[in-house]
Design a protein that fits this description.
Elements: E1 4-8, H1 13-27, E2 33-40, H2 58-83, H3 85-89, E3 94-100, H4 103-114, E4 118-122, H5 129-134, H6 137-144, E5 149-152
Parallel strand pairs: 1-2, 1-4, 2-3, 4-5
Helix pairs in contact: 4-6
């Protein structure tokens, strides 16, 4: 029934429970697979406050920023690989995805692009004042998703 599951994780406890539920769901679908997605909010990217330095060029400054971003993405990928070991141990076909952007928008876009038949997401994760005031990632995913969304507590 749900052959192409998109498990969204922010590495929170609720997200890990959603991962376990993704595994249970994919086992009920012969030939199913799981796409695992984490979205890096641009505000979470490392930045370097560079004191003006007359001895380096603007291109060199940008290069440092790009290198820091790539290193951060690699750390996220390493964590994603670690947190998905239980899926590989269960012999479930998985594909890892990392995106940078507004989390709910990137989740919806990924679901559309990947042909997702169900999104599985934790009921809460990292919450900020902005989430409380403007609506949570989960609420926005539910409103805009192109497929059913399973919210796991």
């Amino acid at each position: 029934m749900f052959k192409k599951i998109l498990w969204v994780t922010d590495f929170s406890a609720a997200a890990q429970k959603a991962g376990q539920q993704s595994l249970a769901c994919v086992k009920c679908s012969e030939g199913g697979s799981i796409d695992v997605l984490t979205v890096i909010d641009p505000e979470d990217l490392p930045f370097l406050e560079i004191v003006p330095n007359p001895f380096i060029t603007m291109a060199q400054e940008e290069s440092v920023g790009e290198r820091l971003e790539e290193e951060y993405k690699q750390q996220v990928l390493d964590q994603l690989t670690l947190k998905t070991r239980f899926l590989r141990d269960a012999n479930v076909p998985i594909t890892l995805h990392i995106r940078v952007g507004i989390p709910w928008k990137e989740i919806v876009i990924a679901a559309q692009e990947l042909g997702t038949t169900m999104i599985v997401i934790g009921s809460h994760g990292k919450r900020s004042l902005e989430d409380i005031l403007l609506g949570s990632t989960v609420e926005n995913v539910i409103k805009h998703a192109p497929c059913p969304v399973l919210v796991v507590r």
